[in-house]
């Protein structure tokens, strides 16, 4: 149970990462991914990387620069421009719905304008899910200069689109529906220089 704990990725750049294990029975036609990050990186870095053998950027949350997030589904992406961070924790949630191709992006409990992405697509179920690196092949192919350095916590993946109330609840660390990946019952394996530490502040 990682309640009130964080992964600290100590080095920059880094070859370290964390493997997450989720039991997916079938392809995803809807999903929501949420996490909280704290970093002073200004270079590009990957936050959440979900690769299948067919598609390395099946789901990817990527920050190419301080005022931009990229959200990938099935190798295509949409960009969300954000205010440059105040060197504080940033909580992001991204959700996607195959039927409409609607991509939602929430930053610190507030929604950004919705965008269209990969309507009718299905996200493959046999996946390598990593924190801290961006996969260019299944479970590997890292570019160290896309690695994450800093602190990550509150990582979740649901096989549904969360309602606005639940998006805000995720930001506030309130009770959330059962998830494929849940921070409080995470099955994970650390590879390299990543340390689990208590959160310094709320």
Automatic annotation (TrEMBL):
Keywords attached to this entry: Acute phase, Calcium, Disulfide bond, Metal-binding, Secreted, Signal
Gene3D superfamilies membership: 2.60.120.200
Record has Disulfide bond as a keyword: yes
CDD domains, alphabetized: PTX
Intrachain disulfide bonds: 34-93
Entries under Pfam families matching the protein: Pentaxin (PF00354)
Compartment annotation: Secreted
Broad class of where this protein is predominantly found: secreted
Cofactor needs: Ca(2+)
UniProt record, GO biological process: acute-phase response; innate immune response
Domain Pentraxin (PTX) stretches: 3-202
Cofactor note as given: Binds 2 calcium ions per subunit.
Domain of life: Eukaryota
UniProt keyword annotation of 4Fe-4S present: no
Subunit description: Homopentamer. Pentaxin (or pentraxin) have a discoid arrangement of 5 non-covalently bound subunits.
Family statement drawn from the similarity comment of this UniProt entry: Belongs to the pentraxin family.
The protein's name in its UniProt record: Pentraxin family member
Natural source organism: Promerops cafer
């Amino acid at each position: 149970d990682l309640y009130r704990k964080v992964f600290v990725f100590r080095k920059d750049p880094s070859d370290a990462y964390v493997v997450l294990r989720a039991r997916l029975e079938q392809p995803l036609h809807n999903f929501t991914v949420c996490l909280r990050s704290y970093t002073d990186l200004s270079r590009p870095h990957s936050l959440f990387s979900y690769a299948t053998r067919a598609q390395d950027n099946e789901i990817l949350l990527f920050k190419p620069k301080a005022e931009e997030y990229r959200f990938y589904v099935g190798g295509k992406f949409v960009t969300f421009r954000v205010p440059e961070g105040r060197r504080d924790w940033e909580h992001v949630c991204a959700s996607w719905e195959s039927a409409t191709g609607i991509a939602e992006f929430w930053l610190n409990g507030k929604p950004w304008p919705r965008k269209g992405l990969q309507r009718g697509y299905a996200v493959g179920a046999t996946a390598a899910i990593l924190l801290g690196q961006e996969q260019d092949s299944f479970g590997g192919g890292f570019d160290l200069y896309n690695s994450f350095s800093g602190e990550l916590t509150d990582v979740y993946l649901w096989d549904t689109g969360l309602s606005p109330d639940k998006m805000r609840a995720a930001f506030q660390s309130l009770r959330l529906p059962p998830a494929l990946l849940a921070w409080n019952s995470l099955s994970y394996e650390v590879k390299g220089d990543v340390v689990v530490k208590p959160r310094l502040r709320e």
